[in-house]
Amino acid sequence: MDLSIVIPCLNEENTIDICVKKCLQSFQKLNIKGEVIVVDNQSTDNSYNKAKEAGAKVISCEARGYGSAIREGFKEAQGEYVLMADGDNSYDFLQIEDFWNMRHKDFDMILGSRFRGKIEKNAMPPLHRYFGTPLLTFIVNTLFFLHITDSQSGMRFFKKSSLDKIKLESTGMEFASELTVKFRLNGMKIIEIPINLYKDGRINGKPHLKPWRDGMRHLLYMLKMRFFYKKGN
Ligand SMILES: Nc1nc2c(ncn2[C@@H]2O[C@H](COP(=O)(O)OP(=O)(O)O)[C@@H](O)[C@H]2O)c(=O)[nH]1
Ligand SMILES: [Mg+2]
Fold first, then answer.
1. Which of 13, 26, 86, 193 is found 20 to 30 A from 95 (Cα to Cα)?
2. Alpha-carbon span 182 to 144, nearest angstrom
3. Minimum-distance ligand to the CA of 200?
4. How far is it, in rounded angstroms, from Cα 129 to Cα 226?
């Protein structure tokens, strides 16, 4: 298996099938032997069936939360490479090509940076775009001597062998910080490529991210890691 795509999904019935189909389209175009793993947390809408019908392997994750879901997906992944991205059609799964073309370069994680690409109008609330994400990115760069431009990106590409070297434990949205920080503290190489961000395709659902609560969780997590982390954990 070349590539496993892991998509966390909570009530995304309007978009999850579009995302899965774009993944399959990319596999075909790039001649990739791939799998799409949708990790659902007891969605109350029709996400589960939609994802299955579109051709994904769908897992029901008992433990709730964005981080729990992606970690479960990583465990299932059989590919030599792994890509994670959201199921609300805000990231473009046809851009897998840009990650795939980099696969022989020297890296452990390729971070898709929305701030280096194009952010469609209304795709990111102003509070996140001009305050929350730049601030959290500045903090992670300062605490851990990094030079990334989008610490909150949900689209990332990994060598599976690199992912297997670190233990991940976050359950919520702070999982994004955990990934960046643990790769860094274990001496692994993070590179970036530009990606685009679009307005999500939800019709009446709300984002699951709660900016103040999740922002604080990211911040506390980073501080904990900076001062108490022991390598290998
Ligand atoms: N399985 C699962 N997926 C989740 C959970 N919370 C969020 N997601 C998914 O994670 C992705 C990102 O969530 P979203 O609300 O779009 O966050 P935002 O774009 O950062 O505001 C989407 O595909 C969600 O369906 C959860 O608790 N469980
Ligand atoms: Mg979203």
1. 13
2. 10
3. 2
4. 25
